[in-house]
Amino acid sequence: MSRAAIFFATGFEEIEALTVVDVLRRGGITADMISVTGEREVTGSHGITVKTDALFDEAAFDETDILVLPGGMPGTKNLEAYQPLMDRVDEFYEQGKYVAAICAAPSIFGHKGILKGRKACSNPGFESHLEGADVRWEKAVVDGHVITSRGMGTAIPFALAILEQFAGAEAAGQMKEKLVYTES
Predict the structure, then answer these.
(1) Which helix (H) or strand (E) holds 99?
(2) Measured between alpha carbons, how far is 75 from 43 in angstroms, rounded to an integer?
(3) Tens of pLDDT, residues 9-35
(4) By CB atoms within 10 Å of each CB, which of 7, 23, 86, 109 scores lowest?
(5) Treating both helix axes as pointing N-terminal to C-terminal, what angle do 14-26 and 169-178 enclose, rounded to 10 degrees?
(6) Cα 81 from chain centroid (whole Å)
(7) What is the pLDDT of residue 1?
């Protein structure tokens, strides 16, 4: 079974983080909610507090297939400031393992040089941080082992794109139907 690590920092965007967790778990992917705050309970950008599954130091990264960075402010800045996570992102990227980010969080990948020569998207206003990327306006972009998305309103397509990488297009299509997700 595939395993995803979704990271929670103070000020995370609740819908972006929890939609990914929900869709992946429904699709049979282990989705670990990991706190980078040193506390199991983390409060999002809209005052919703979530109890995570583990602290960063407790995570089983050797069993993890993808790292997922939700956006939100100041969540994105807090993720980027947490050096152990940034080291892990570098490691996963260099090993060709999946990394994913939504909303403002793709800016982290831009700052790290991960997006150079890749198609990517982000929340409007953060495109200048996608350094070296071929910026797109799609709901979710998969380019090799890097997945990006635009924001809260694209959280389901983002989660489905992740699910497709690990469970296949058919499973993602079936999930889309179960969620009654329609594209307008």
Answers:
(1) strand 98-102
(2) 10
(3) 999 999 999 999 999 999 999 999 999
(4) 86
(5) 110
(6) 16
(7) 78
CB distance 43 to 33 below 8 Å: no
Which among 103, 115, 120, 130 is annotated as catalytic?
A: 103
Q: Six-digit token pair at 145?
A: 């082992």
Q: Is 103 annotated as catalytic? A: yes
User: For 92-148, what is each residue's pLDDT tens digit?
Assistant: 999 999 999 999 999 999 999 999 999 999 999 999 999 999 999 999 999 999 999
Distance CA 122, CA 87 (A): 22
Query: Two tokens at 120?
Result: 């990517």
What kind and span of H or E run contains 41?
Answer: strand 41-43
> Torsion angle, CA of 86/92/94/100, rounded to 10 degrees?
-80
CA angle, 166 as apex, 162 and 50 as ends, to 5°? 50
Count other C-beta atoms under 10 Å from residue 46's C-beta: 11
In this structure, which topology does domain 3-178 adopt according to CATH? Rossmann fold (3.40.50)
**114-141 burial, b for 16+ CB within 10 Å, e for fewer?**
bbeebbbbbbeebbebbeebebbeebbb
Residues across the chain: 184
Task: Map out the domains of the chain as residue ranges.
Answer: 3-178
